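Module 6 notes. Inverse folding takes a fixed backbone as the condition and produces residue identities as the prediction. Think of it as a translation problem where the source language is geometry and the target language is the twenty amino acids. Below is one complete input and output pair. Work through it position by position during the lab.
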């Protein structure tokens, strides 16, 4: 017995790949995802502390952070922002 409906493959479409993966669209997508998980205040506090000297390491990062005086305020990628939003969610099961 199945608890789900089979997807209608007739509704699927394949498009050309994007030629970019950064910039404003990535920021908008990450923020939209983060705000869906928790409040604006908690989102801001969480994202501003990722990979900072007095913050915490992004659980999804594979490369080292620059020295504390050389870090950007937003030193993380879109996937890192989405991953940490899952960790900081206020949703409960």
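Target side of the pair, the amino acids:
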């Amino acid at each position: 017995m199945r608890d789900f409906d089979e997807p209608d493959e007739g509704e699927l479409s394949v498009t050309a790949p994007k030629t970019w993966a950064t910039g404003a669209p990535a920021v908008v997508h990450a923020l939209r995802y983060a705000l869906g998980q928790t409040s604006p205040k908690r989102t801001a506090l969480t994202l501003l502390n990722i990979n900072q000297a007095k913050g915490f390491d992004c659980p999804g990062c594979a490369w080292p952070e620059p020295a504390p005086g050389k870090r950007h305020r937003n030193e993380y990628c879109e996937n890192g922002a989405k991953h940490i939003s899952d960790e900081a969610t206020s949703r409960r099961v």
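Reference fact for the lab report: The CA atoms of residues 9 and 15 lie 15 Å apart.
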